[in-house]
Amino acid sequence: MLCRPAGPNINERRGRRTPGAVWIMKLMSPKEFLGFTPGDDRKLADWPQITGYFKHLAEHGRRIKWFDMGETTEGRPFFYVCISSPETLDDLEEFRRINARLADPRGLSQSEAQDLIARAKTIVMISCSIHATEVGAAQMSMELAHDLVTSEEPKVREILDKVILLLVPSLNPDGLDLVVDWYKKYLDTPYEGTIPPFLYHKYAGHDNNRDWFMLNLVENRLTVERLHNVWHPQIVLDMHQMRDTGFRFFVPPYVDPYDPNVDFILQQQINMLGTHIVGELLSAGKTGVSCYNGFDAYAPSRAYQHYHGGIRILSEAASVKIATPVSRSADELLVTRDGWDPRQSTWNHPVPWPGGVWRLRDIVEYNKIAAMAVLTHAARFRELWVSNFYKIGVRACERKQPYAFILPKDQRDPVMLYELLKVLHMGQVEIHRAKSDFEAEGAWFPAGSYVIKLAQPYGAYAKTLLEIQEYPDLRQYPGGPPKLPYDITGHTLPLLMGVRCTLAKKSFEVELERVEVPELPWGQVQVLGGLGDKAAKGNTGWYVLSSAVSASYKVVNNLLEQSREVYRTAGSFIKGGRHVPAGSFLVPADAADAGEIQELCSRYGVTAWFMDGGGGDGATGDRGSVDVARYKLKKPRVGVYQAYLPVADEGWLRFVLEEYGFPYETIRNQRIRRGNLREEFDTIIFPSIRAQVIAHGIRPGTYPPEYVGGLGQEGKQAIASFVEAGGTCVFADASCEWAIKELGLPVVNVLDGKRPPEFFAPGSILRTIVDTEHPLGFGLPRETAVMFARSPAWEAEARYVVARYPAVDPLMSGWLLGGKLLANKAALLEIPVGFGRVVLIGFHPHFRAQARGTYKVMFNAIYLGSRRSEKC
Q1: Given a cut of 70, is residue 698 above it in pLDDT?
Q2: What is the rounded radius of gyration, in angstroms, for the C-alpha atoms of the chain?
Q3: pTM (2 decimals)?
Q4: Could you give all domains of the chain from N- to C-terminal order, each with its CATH number?
């Protein structure tokens, strides 16, 4: 390390003292630390290098403090740094407390609020490179931090005095290392600069920034728990990259529509700050800077802070080939999907980029200018940002109508109710529970029902997640095609999770108690058939688990893993005065210890019923039984197809299977083409993947040979042989096209060739009618909501149909044009082929691990593939 005698410079941390002198540690620049400048051609810092550099700054700098957030999905260190003046860092907890008090202004007098506003700092969060191939922001973060902790420029001192910066160098360290490793491996080869043929987040890939309300992913959950909910930033700058054939840089204003739950003050602050960033970039001589195109602010899955008093500024820089420069002439630039031409000067794109060589260093520079623009604005308008933050909280707490959402206690799936409450709780929504029965909106609700009042700081967050979305009918011109939404248009969680929910527009009277932390339902074993407390080891009879409760599948998979016997009923029956529906799980009492069943029920919040096997109702043996067909389940042998053109749906499927304890093996083209699949697998699942990708994969010559091609004819024949030999093949959404064509299934997609505005359903929640007596429909309600996103719908023989769309409008939430085309069409099919079957799912059953109400469709298909018929 380089050292020099200290002066009164506050940016340097005092190190060891020697007689007669004070020595301080010099802070290295990124170039000194790395051996190259961030943004240099064909150079990338990986996560250990970035982590090491920030540790160096935090250990020796007086303007920066390190905060550990935990570990990533794959076990890497996950952190953020706080940058501000030394005086602020010395009193950091006080400033955090001030902002937290302003975030929840209830009980504050006007004079108290003004005092806090006068003392508060603007809290800014900058997050980098959540999409790991978009490497520029993570590389830039080191340079930004170094400038802030070493510079003596007046604008930097103003930022340090008035702003607390929370800098997250990468929201996806696992993906960053994957991308850097891939890039370095293929430097100086024909494949230099290619995108890795794997998901760059283990489970979500590019979908990892669509998880900001469900918080399935550990990185997002930790960021919310340990940064958002602790600091309540007024500004979040979320730095991304986009294709290299358009504008050089995008920031808001966003295009319509905004989610109406985003406060109008926030909407205008987004416009204000976005146009300021554009101005700063232009004044620095940068070209190709645009706003108001392509990106909207409708979905809460991308913008947690919009519902928590702050704004999210999305930035998008034109990409390079990871770190390899690209050359583009102006003539090669393409018009955007909403009609903006990057070659033309317009009000929202004043100075077009003339074309030429575009480098990673350009991305770093644009990003750093944008970041400094945000910080400068946050400092110079500190009082405006803080006072508006307070006003937004006041407005939220003064809401009159609608009054509340009610989640009844008596749900088909009590565990799913708990999971929904947990989502709200993680978003700091206050939850209350009724202490008595009450009436609201003309209906009675039992004691123990949950009430989500909307007059609270984060009522807008609850409202957007619980209400029905009515997406506006936006057209390119009157009567013309629809304007394409940036993402989905329906995200109503009660529908996606199968939870009943009622909107109460007006207030009602009931005594409520605050729920500090939602609790998993009390898992227990109850008794049918008059045995009293004799349901214990050694008794004859059966434990019954409801397939309406998704967590029952976790219990069953645990039992199968331990080689316990588990059966499934093929029909319904009545025992001990209780109706046992088709698809219920039966566990023989002599096959599983009573303590084991109780422990599993307690772990997962499931109620099991002990059913006496002796006497009456068709008892025939020591175990006893009922006169109903049953299937014996075995531990499933599942293969999940993974293409080398990665799709997020495949990762989310693995996430869900692991969460519920389904064993699986990832299988790729080479394994399928080898054949003999029936020897290893009962069920093979194709997630939602385009037919072209399944058939042909990556074009030869563009990637290393081991990653090119698709299933081809060999793979097609191997899948056909697998099914004919008794295997079950499950195809979800887009992959159904390949199955229908290549396996010759007697099915017609009635939406094939239909284009907007004749038909359009861009991520909407639709109603289906399910045959709940069919093994694929076990556990589902007759009316089941499904996520439909540019999905198929079929004309098929009635004997194949398990679920279909109703004769009337199926739209439940979102946007749908041409819904009449879906009338009575099939959404879920089982088609026998040889000794096996093909299951076609015409929607997204595990969409982003959000559509939890339809997980059972996939689970049922897996159990169907591994069943053994038996009558008792």
Answers
A1: yes
A2: 29
A3: 0.95
A4: 63-140+150-395 (3.40.630.10), 399-508 (no CATH), 524-633 (no CATH), 638-871 (3.40.50.880)
